[in-house]
Design a protein that fits this description.
The chain is an all-alpha fold. The chain has three domains: 53 residues; 100 residues, no CATH class; 54 residues. The protein starts with a helix and ends with a helix. It is found in: Cell membrane. Keywords: Cell membrane, Membrane, Phosphotransferase system, Sugar transport, Transferase, Transmembrane, Transmembrane helix, Transport.
Length: 214
C-alpha cells in the first residue's frame, strides 16, 4: 500500500515539476539562440551542450510523462525475467528522452514508441550493475545512511545500457566458459552491425535534410 502510494505521488508530482523546469530553462535556451543568431550572422557554428539546454522542448516532457507509467508497468512485468529495479527516483527518465528527441527530431509518437522498446534495456542493465555500484559506494563511503546494508543501489536510466550489457558479457567471457565467449562474440558482431546501420541511416537523413534546406 505504502509503495503504491509512493509511486502514485511520484507520477503526479512529476508532471507538475516538469512544467516548472520548462519555464525555468526556456529563457536560457532562448537567450542562447538569440545570442547565436545575432553574433554569427548566418554562419554555421556547432557547439556541444548538455541536455538541460534542450530541456525547454515540450516534447521531452510530454514523452517523459507518457513513458513514466509505462516504465513502472514494464518494471513490474520484467521482475519475472531478471529486473530488480522499481524506478521511482528515476521515473523522470532523463537518460532516455533527450536522446530520443535528437534521434527522432522531436517526433513525439516515435519518441514514445522507441522509448517503450528501449526502457527494458535500461532496467535490465541497471539491475546488472547494481552489485558493482553498491560495492563502489560502500568502498568510498557514499552508501546512504539508514539504508539496510543488504540493499543494492543503482541507476534505472543511466546512459549506455547496451554498453553495460556488453561489458557484462565480456566479464563473463573472461571466466573461460565457451558459451560465455561465444555469447560475447555474438554480442560484439551485433553491436558493430547495429552501429554501422545507425551511422548509415544518420548520414542518409542528414543529406536529405541538407537537400531540403536548399
Amino acid at each position: 500500500m505504502s509503495l503504491g502510494l509512493t509511486a502514485g505521488v511520484a507520477l503526479e508530482l512529476f508532471s507538475l515539476i516538469g512544467s516548472w523546469f520548462i519555464a525555468a530553462v526556456e529563457p536560457l535556451s532562448q537567450g542562447i539562440t538569440n545570442v547565436a543568431t545575432k553574433r554569427l550572422q548566418g554562419r554555421k557554428f556547432n557547439i556541444g551542450l548538455d541536455w538541460p539546454f534542450i530541456a525547454g522542448r515540450a516534447e521531452i516532457w510530454a514523452c517523459a510523462n507518457v513513458l513514466a507509467p509505462i516504465m513502472l508497468v514494464e518494471a513490474v512485468l520484467l521482475s519475472n525475467v531478471g529486473n530488480g529495479i522499481l524506478p521511482l527516483a528515476g521515473i523522470i527518465a532523463m537518460g532516455v528522452t533527450p536522446a530520443l528527441l535528437v534521434v527522432t527530431r522531436g517526433k513525439l509518437l516515435r519518441m514514445i514508441i522507441f522509448g517503450t522498446l528501449l526502457l527494458p534495456l535500461f532496467l535490465l542493465s541497471g539491475t546488472l550493475i547494481a552489485p558493482f555500484a553498491t560495492e563502489l559506494a560502500k568502498g568510498v563511503g557514499a552508501f546512504p545512511e539508514g539504508v539496510n546494508q543488504s540493499q543494492l543501489i543503482t541507476h534505472s536510466t543511466l546512459e549506455g545500457p547496451i554498453e553495460k550489457l556488453f561489458g557484462w558479457a565480456i566479464g563473463n567471457a573472461t571466466t573461460g566458459d565457451i558459451k560465455a565467449i561465444l555469447g560475447a562474440a555474438a554480442f560484439l558482431v551485433f553491436y558493430v552491425g547495429i552501429f554501422a546501420w545507425y551511422r548509415k541511416q544518420m548520414i542518409k537523413r542528414n543529406e536529405e535534410y541538407a537537400a531540403n534546406a536548399k
